[in-house]
Amino acid sequence: MIYVITHKKFDDSIVDSNGYQILHVGKNDNCKENYLRDDTGDNISEKNSCFCELTGLYWIWKNSLQDDEITGLVHYRRYFTDNQQYHNYAKKGIMPSPLDYSSICELIDEKTVVLPCAYKTLSTLRNSYRRCHDIQDLEVLENVLNELQSEYIKTFRNILKKHKGYYFNMVLCNGKTLKEYCSWLFPILYKVEESLKYEKGSNYQNRVYGFLSERLLQVWIIHNGYKIVEMPVFNVEQRPITLRKRNSDRIGYLVDKYIKHKRK
To answer: Which pTM value belongs to this model?
Structure first.
């Protein structure tokens, strides 16, 4: 089962019920009757304003996950699709269909995961985080990782030196893999949570644990030797990112570098 994470009612006609299930997260007072909810069973739904889709991931892990199933999560507005449909979407504006469940199953085995196509930037992943978020949060994560899972710290630091990353916390894999990842991820985030002082609310930076887990997902996958299959992601609410917008981070990086050079 592939779970479609949402925090609101949406036009769910695009979701093929065969292999997909909608999971409503966070404040569930505007949830459709046929949606699953992350405030039932063993849950951390009250953390949603800071943990984002991870409250849905936690619910899946604790309440609905089988070792031998192909599973994962996407978003109400972001879905994996195949390369040909994405080409038609990017070039011709033809809205794709989400990747069907049978195709997903063909891509995955015990050591293979599906992630969104890597997003490439001129600046390193560490500097990209610095530009968009509070770098001290990433430094707290680094310290916690070194304390709890020190064997991963070299992979973590190497990845932060790279110029490409995997975002959205979207992943497809088998159930056993997802269980192992969740068992590793959440204790780390809970330890980080002891040091960070974000309040519940709508401020963008409050989503800190979602941002941090985007970096941790690829650390865990790469460290444990999984094969990554990259598949394109489309957004039902917007056209693909323009070349200008895609390069805005690169432009900002070059401007910052030029300013620092002039100040010397």
So the answer is: 0.89
